[in-house]
C-alpha cells in the first residue's frame, strides 16, 4: 500500500501515517461556511464505500473458511477462551509466520479500501501530472478497484 | 479570480510573505486577509480544483504551518469564495462565532485513531471463544476442507462472529482511549477499518493517548491501531 506521509506527520510523534488515513478528515470534516462554495469533488463519493458490502460476500466467506482451516487449532484454544494469552501463545508457538501473513487478511481489506481511495484520487491526478511516475503504482492496483471506480 | 480559503486564524497574520505555498500547479502563494482580530488564510483558486493528492497535502500543510503561530479553524477542503472582499465580509459578519470556536480550540490538536483486526489473530480468537465454530472448523479440516457449501456456510458464521467482535472491540478501544482526550468524536464513516475515532487533545499532551494505544495492542494482540496526529482540529469545528 502506498503511503504518503503528510508533511505534518514528520513533526508529530503520532506513529506512521498515510494520506489515506487523514484524507477523509480533510474532505469530510472542517469548517463549512454557507457563503463559500464547496467545489463539487467528483469521485469523492467512492470514499463512502462501505466495506461491509465487500465483507459480506461469498469470496470473503470462503477466505475465512480457508484461513480457519490453516490455523493451528492445537496451540492454545483449549485454554480458557477469550484471554489474550490464547493468541499470544500462538504467536510464541512458532506460528509467528502465519500470524504475520495474517495481515494479508484484515490488512488486505484495508489496502483494498485504501486502493479504491487511491483510485478515487488518482484519476484526477493522472489527467495532467506525471503519468510516467504513476505507472508502477497503477500496476500494483487491484484490477477490481479500477473496474469499480 | 476566486479565493480559496484554508482556514480562519486568530490575530493578525502578517508574516506569510512568499514562503508558504498552497494548492495549485505550480503551487500558489498563500496570503492572509486580516479583518479585525481574525485572519482568513487564503490563496487564489486554481481554475480547476480537484482533490489531487498534492492539493490535499497542500491544504493540510498550510494549516499546519499557520497553526504553529496562530490558533486556526481548519476549513473543509474545497471551500471557495468569489473574492477577497467576500471573505472579509464573512469574517466581519460572524466574528463572534469564530472567536468562540478559536477560544475553545486554542492549543488543541486532533488525533485520529483507526482500528483494524489482525485477521488470523482474530479468527483464532473467535474459534477459541466459540466451541461450535471450532467444532465445525475441525470437522471441515477432517473432511479435507469440506464441500463448497460447507465452507461458505462456515465462513459466513465466522464472518458474523468477526463482525460481532468488531462491535465489541470498537467499544473497548473507545473506552480505553477516551480518558486520554478532552473530547471524542466518531470519524467519518468510511471503509477499511472497523473504528475511526477522532480525539481532541492539548497540543503537547499526546503521550497518554499513545501509551493507551500501545497498551491496548499489547493486551489485545488481534487489535491493530493506527494513530494519526497532530492534525488541525477538523472534527471539532462547528459549521
UniProtKB/TrEMBL annotation, chain A:
Transmembrane segments: none annotated. Keywords: Gas vesicle. The keyword Repeat does not apply. It is found in: Gas vesicle shell. Residues 91-149 are annotated as: Disordered. InterPro entries: Gas-vesicle_GvpA-like, Gas_vesicle_GvpA, GvpA, GvpA-like_CS. The keyword rRNA-binding does not apply. Belongs to the gas vesicle GvpA family. Gas vesicles are hollow, gas filled proteinaceous nanostructures found in some microorganisms. During planktonic growth they allow positioning of the organism at a favorable depth for light or nutrient acquisition. GvpA forms the protein shell. This is Gas vesicle protein A.
TrEMBL record, chain B:
It comes from the Bacteria. This is Gas vesicle protein. It comes from Streptomyces demainii. Keywords: Gas vesicle. The lineage of its organism: Bacteria, Bacillati, Actinomycetota, Actinomycetes, Kitasatosporales. Its main location: other. Belongs to the gas vesicle GvpF/GvpL family. It is found in: Gas vesicle.
Amino acid at each position: 500500500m502506498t503511503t504518503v506521509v503528510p508533511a505534518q506527520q514528520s513533526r508529530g510523534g503520532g506513529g506512521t501515517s498515510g494520506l489515506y488515513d487523514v484524507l477523509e478528515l480533510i474532505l469530510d470534516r472542517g469548517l463549512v461556511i454557507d457563503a463559500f462554495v464547496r467545489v463539487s469533488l467528483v469521485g469523492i463519493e467512492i470514499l463512502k464505500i462501505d466495506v461491509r458490502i465487500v465483507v459480506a460476500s461469498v469470496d470473503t466467506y470462503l477466505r475465512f473458511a480457508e484461513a480457519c482451516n490453516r490455523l493451528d487449532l492445537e496451540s492454545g484454544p483449549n485454554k480458557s477462551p477469550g484471554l489474550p494469552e490464547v493468541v499470544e501463545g500462538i504467536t510464541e508457538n512458532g506460528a509467528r509466520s502465519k500470524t504475520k501473513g495474517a495481515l494479508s487478511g484484515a490488512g488486505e481489506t484495508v489496502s483494498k479500501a485504501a486502493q479504491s481511495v487511491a483510485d478515487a484520487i488518482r484519476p484526477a491526478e493522472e489527467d495532467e501530472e506525471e503519468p510516467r511516475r504513476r505507472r508502477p503504482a497503477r500496476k500494483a492496483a487491484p484490477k477490481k478497484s479500477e473496474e469499480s471506480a | 479570480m476566486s479565493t480559496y480559503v484554508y482556514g480562519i486564524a486568530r490575530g493578525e497574520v502578517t508574516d506569510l510573505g512568499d514562503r508558504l505555498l498552497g494548492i495549485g500547479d505550480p503551487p500558489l502563494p498563500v496570503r492572509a486577509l486580516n479583518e479585525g482580530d481574525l485572519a482568513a488564510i487564503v490563496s487564489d483558486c486554481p481554475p480547476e480544483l480537484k482533490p489531487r493528492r498534492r492539493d490535499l497535502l497542500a491544504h493540510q500543510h498550510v494549516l499546519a504551518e499557520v497553526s504553529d503561530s496562530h490558533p486556526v479553524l481548519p476549513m473543509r477542503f474545497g471551500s471557495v469564495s468569489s473574492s477577497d472582499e467576500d471573505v472579509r465580509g464573512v469574517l466581519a459578519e460572524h466574528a463572534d462565532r469564530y472567536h468562540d470556536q478559536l477560544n475553545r480550540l486554542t492549543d488543541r490538536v486532533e488525533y485520529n485513531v483507526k482500528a483494524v483486526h489482525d485477521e488470523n489473530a482474530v479468527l483464532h480468537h473467535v474459534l477459541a471463544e466459540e466451541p461450535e465454530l471450532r467444532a465445525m472448523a475441525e470437522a471441515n479440516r477432517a473432511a479435507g476442507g469440506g464441500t463448497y457449501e460447507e465452507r461458505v456456510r462456515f465462513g459466513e458464521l465466522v464472518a458474523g462472529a468477526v463482525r460481532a467482535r468488531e462491535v465489541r472491540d470498537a467499544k473497548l478501544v473507545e473506552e480505553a482511549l477516551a480518558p486520554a482526550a478532552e473530547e471524542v468524536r466518531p470519524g467519518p464513516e468510511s471503509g477499511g477499518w472497523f473504528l475511526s475515532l477522532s480525539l481532541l487533545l492539548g497540543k503537547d499532551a499526546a503521550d497518554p493517548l499513545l501509551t493507551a494505544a500501545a497498551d491496548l495492542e499489547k493486551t489485545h494482540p488481534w487489535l491493530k491501531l493506527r494513530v494519526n496526529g497532530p492534525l488541525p482540529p477538523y472534527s471539532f469545528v462547528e459549521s
